[in-house]
Automatic annotation (TrEMBL):
It comes from Psylliodes chrysocephalus. Key enzyme of fatty acid beta-oxidation. Able to isomerize both 3-cis (3Z) and 3-trans (3E) double bonds into the 2-trans (2E) form in a range of enoyl-CoA species, with a preference for (3Z)-enoyl-CoAs over (3E)-enoyl-CoAs. The catalytic efficiency of this enzyme is not affected by the fatty acyl chain length. Homotrimer. This is Enoyl-CoA delta isomerase 1, mitochondrial. PROSITE patterns: ENOYL_COA_HYDRATASE. Pfam families: ECH_1. GO terms for biological process: fatty acid beta-oxidation.
């Protein structure tokens, strides 16, 4: 017997069921964590990771730790590809859970930012094939994490980009670098100085995303097609090529670790930024944009 976990919503409550599935019939391996649902299709050996942290899949410390650990498990299992999406159509993630930024405790800020960077690096650096199915809004941290994937498809009529400047915050330089890799330096400069969120169409025209899809189902099947298209590419050569094309960015990010963490702690931990964050949270709650 194979044990799987199935999570369903009944009358608004999340219910977790332990399933006993005869090995012979199993086509899904399922090892979800608290905030990230995972299923691996035994036939295609492809994993789908669905962010599942109501209300907006905010990236708090727990989500980041779970995500990083699940990716490590999938690397060990040598899956053929990983598809990253949201369990809630309409929002990939609202980015960093702002509650994590509402502190001047330097040790907490340092811990959060170290984990945030490590999780991004894990995704950016994984030898696995990764496809983001952006099935909803993807501001700030959400956009950043999707740029770490090898390929991005996005459903229509949502927004993606680095909006930090609009909030009175400054995005990390490596987010700017990564976006510049995809859309070019000039467009990245305009985007970050304005804190611009792009529509799906705009993001596609610029190259921030690779393809537009109509809905999550089409996104998932498109992602599988992309993963399949690598089936005949020698695995080792693909992995080394991925590493080589990403090496320069990686080296810079690692070289700048101490400066980046210090800037984050000083920037977010200042009373001035704390006021800005507090005001933004109030606006968000009262929907005054
Ligand atoms: C000077 C040197 C500097 C050096 C480097 C420093 C580096 C600094 C790094 C700073 C980086 C920041 C990156 C980020 O990710 S910041 C977060 C940015 N995210 C956003 O601005 C998104 C805000 N949210 C939205 O736009 C919308 O909520 C949504 C995601 C489009 C969804 O809209 P929808 O209408 O469906 O839902 P609501 O708006 O009603 O939201 C539902 C409840 O969720 C709360 N919420 C939303 N987003 C967040 C969030 N990111 N964190 C925490 N909470 C969030 C919202 O308030 C609602 O709560 P309520 O039900 O209690 O009212």
């Amino acid at each position: 017997m194979f044990k799987g976990i199935c999570r369903e919503t009944h009358n608004g409550n999340m219910v977790t069921k332990i399933l006993k599935i005869p090995k012979f019939f199993t086509c899904i391996r399922n090892f979800s964590s608290e905030n990230v649902l995972v299923e691996v299709n035994n036939k295609t050996n492809t994993a789908i990771l669905r962010l599942s942290r109501p209300p907006v899949n905010g990236l708090n410390l727990e989500v980041l730790n779970e995500f990083e650990s699940l990716l490590s498990q999938l690397e060990q299992q040598k899956v053929n590809g990983v598809i990253i999406t949201s369990n809630k159509e309409g929002i990939l993630t609202g980015g960093i859970d702002i509650a994590e930024l509402q502190t001047i405790d330097q040790r907490r800020l340092k811990k959060y930012w170290t984990t945030f960077r490590d999780t991004f690096l894990k995704l950016y650096n994984t030898p696995l094939l990764t496809v983001a199915v952006i099935n909803g809004h993807s501001p700030a941290g959400g956009c950043l994490f999707s740029t770490a994937c090898d390929y991005r498809v996005m459903t229509r009529n949502y927004n993606i980009g680095g909006n930090e400047t609009q909030l009175g915050l400054v995005a990390p330089i490596w987010f700017m670098d990564r976006v510049a890799d995809l859309i070019g330096h000039r467009q990245a400069e305009l985007a970050f100085t304005q804190g611009k969120l792009f529509s799906t169409d705009e993001a596609h025209k610029l190259g921030l995303i690779d393809e537009i899809v109509e809905n999550t189902a089409e996104g998932l099947s498109k992602a599988q097609i992309i993963i399949n298209s690598f089936a005949n590419v020698p695995k080792k050569a693909r992995e080394i090529s991925k590493r080589f094309t990403r090496q320069q960015f990686l080296d810079k990010m690692i070289r700048d670790t101490d400066d980046d963490i210090r800037h984050f702690v000083n920037h977010i931990g200042s009373n001035e930024t704390q006021k800005i964050i507090e005001q933004y949270m109030q606006k968000l709650k009262s929907k005054r944009f």
